[in-house]
Structure formats: C-alpha cells, structure tokens
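RECORD CONTENTS
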Amino acid sequence: MKYLAILLIVFYQKFISPHKGFRCAYAVLHGGDSCSEAVKTIVRDKGPFGGYRDIRARFQACKEANETLIGSGQRRRGRNDCDECPDCDCDCSEACRFKKADACEHSSCDLPDLPCDCSF
C-alpha cells in the first residue's frame, strides 16, 4: 500500500502539479518542501495509515498558510497568470490567464470580451 501511495504522489508531481498553475501555499509562505513532497516523505517513513495524523496536520498547515497569504493581500500566482503585465487589470480572471500571451503583448490587458472580475 505504501508503494502505491508513493507512486500516485510521484505521478501527481510529474504530470498534474506542473500544469495546475499555482504552488503549495505552505511552501510559498514558509519555504521548504511542497505538501506533495512532505506527504511522500511521511508515507515513505510511516506508511499511509501510520502517517495519517502527520498528513492531516500538514494539509491543515497548508490551509492556514493559504488563508494567511489571502489575508495579507498576497495571491498564490502560477505561471499562467499575467504576472508580466503590470497594467493588466484583469490578471485574475480565468480567461485572462488562458490568453496570457495575447494579453501580455500589450501594456494593458486590452481584451474587452473578457470578464475582468476578481471575485473568485
């Protein structure tokens, strides 16, 4: 069971995590390993059942780190955001993220058909 859990975490790290567009909030706020790397270590050392409490504690710490980042006005930004557009006023909309290349070629996010709503 331990090896299956580690295999699933490695699959996530190689094929899913690089494409999700943001980093682990715990790693952003505190540095160090991401949650997936920390959980992989816990599973390797204690197994998925023996390490259950440690895994839950890590995810709770990540949730709290995310709330801290949101509360401080920082956002967890991924490589799909319009970070290179200092004048982009709709950098947080999903549509702007997917049209990053088009949006960031201009000094402002001149995409009138996109919803510039940062409510999510």
